[in-house]
Amino acid sequence: MTAQSDQVGAGYRAPLCRLGALLMIEAVLVFLLGQGLRAALDQRSVIGPLLLWLHKITFFLAALGGITGLSGIGRANTRRAILHTRRSPALLGLHLVAFCLLIAVYLALAAGLQGAVLDALAVGLLLFCGMSGFLLLVPIQAHDRPMRFLVLGGLCLALAWGLFSAAAGGLLQHLQTGIEKLTLQLTLWLLDILQIGPLDVLRDAAGQPVLAARGFAISIAASCAGYEGVGGAVLLILLYAMAERGRLRPARALLLAVLACLTVFVVNALRIALLFALGVKGHAELALNGFHSHFGVLGLLIVVGGTIGLLQLPFFLRHPARGAHQLGLPISERTLRNLVPAVTPLALAIGVSLVTGLFSGSLNWLYPLHILAGAALLWHNRGWLRARLIPVSAVRGPIIGGLVYLIWIALVPDDAGNIRVIGATLIVPLLEESAFRGGIQPALATAFARFGAARLAPYLAAGLAAISFGLLHDQILAGTIAGFGYGLLALGHARLGDAVLAHAITNVLLSAHVLSTGQLSYW
Q: What range does the domain containing 186 cover?
């Protein structure tokens, strides 16, 4: 019976892995061809506002699908259902037809054709492709009760938002105004504690509050009320809680998550208060540059990380004595031991960069510190790193590195920026390739191998690692393409040397380009 089950499972895993690769390619094509096609969509036709709402729902549901899909990886029953459930040939056929039509519509819009029908097809086909792709990858049979609750709740929320947003517009406006007033009052209370005053609370032309004192003034925009931070905290904590729902006590974990979101809200008000206090005390450049851009991110990471740490306490666990590996997580202890030395140098460098960025103005004079911190941890892990750097090809690395340089120059616009030649050419390639190609990509490949054919799993892992690498850069598309190129080099013998060499050559060429032309945006 066991052998027969294994054979059945193996029969379905290869199609599942190919399906994942197909959906990834589709997502890339949609991203590349669909950019900018929905600008002013709500003004182009009578049904424009409805189409804009459906377009927003598509991205909301995509995030929801990502959460539910990833959260199912940690459940053995869910993984078994994903592997062994038959996919509907009719649904797959409809999905492929809809995707081909969507690409045709994108090309027609890009060629200058217009019309309400094309707009409706562009939005409706994208929504259908997203939902059908999710149901193909994670069929209904694979959803346990918490996953179904999350999906149905998200669908109801999206539907209610579209149907009642117009009627509830006044209520939502009052709610938003109340949150903004609460942020302002909390900021003023913190400034009073810091003894910053006397200050004036004014209003700009848009009606937004302006704090002014001693010749320094800041405008508190609506986005400063903390919506993005609270939303980010909700997403990260929800993703973790769904993945670990078998271990956590739901009510207690939910209470802690709510407290974490409130804490992010308070931290945001503290950010505004400290920023204003720095400016009033004569450090305007520091306040409006490094502190403004780094404190919010650092605070969010601390709150989310602290919340996840607290969720490990026995008070929040159903069975405190059980380890994660006993719950069927698809990452082995060996993979985790390999992941830690790979990722920690880059994580330390980013953490130090966020902290030192708090004290930097327009010129980040503390830049070398985070490079030195990452380099020090790389040296500490040199035994692990040395075993993966050699042998190195004298052909593949330089070719890919040169091609990535040409692609980067073609995609990134010229603008002003900062230059950091030594760190970018010597240390950064080691830090980033160690983390993404030496740690994250192999870990993803191991996880995907449990779902599909070993031949395709490394390429899926390289694709997801490349997307993560792209999100780390300001130029996401160029970074993703570069990451995939470096990831392909790391596939052959699971060696980092070629990827590091290619990355270093790209950065050397970019350094030479910057120094010779003065086009500093390529950093």
A: 175-326
Torsions phi, psi for 370 (to 5 deg): -75, -30
Domain shared by 279 and 200, yes or no: yes
Q: Which of 479, 457, 461, 458 is nearest to 469 (CA)?
A: 479
The candidate with the shortest Cα–Cα distance to 343, out of 180, 170, 468, is 468
Q: What H or E segment, with its residue span, contains residue 218?
A: strand 216-219
The mean per-residue pLDDT over the stretch 480-486 comes to: 89
What is the pTM (predicted TM-score) of this model? Answer: 0.68
Q: Which amino acid would we find at residue 285?
A: E
Residue 361 has pLDDT above 70, yes or no: no
- How many folded domains does the chain comprise? 3
Question: What residues have CB less than 8 Å from 54, skipping those under 6 apart?
Answer: 123, 124, 127, 162
In whole angstroms, give the CA distance from residue 158 to residue 163: 9
Rg (CA), the chain: 25
Task: Indicate whether 290 and 409 sit together in one domain.
Answer: no
- Same-domain pairing of 375 and 268: no
CB 434 within 8 A of CB 345: yes
Give me the count of residues in the chain.
Answer: 523
Pairwise CA distance, residues 228 & 236, whole Å: 12
Q: What is the pLDDT of residues 390-404, one digit of tens each?
A: 777 778 888 888 888
Instruction: Please indicate, yes or no, whether residues 310 and 267 belong to a single structural domain of this protein.
Output: yes
How far apart, in whole angstroms, are the C-alpha atoms of residue 311 and residue 302? 14
∠ CA 32-37-41, rounded to 5°: 150
CA–CA dist 353, 370 (Å, integer): 5
Distance (Å) of CA 273 to CA 19, 217, 225: 50, 12, 12
Burial class (CB in 10 A: 0-12, 13-18, 19+), 485: buried
Contact 190, 270 (CB under 8 A): yes
Residue written as token pair 């593949």: 396
The secondary element (H helix, E strand) that includes residue 202 is strand 200-203
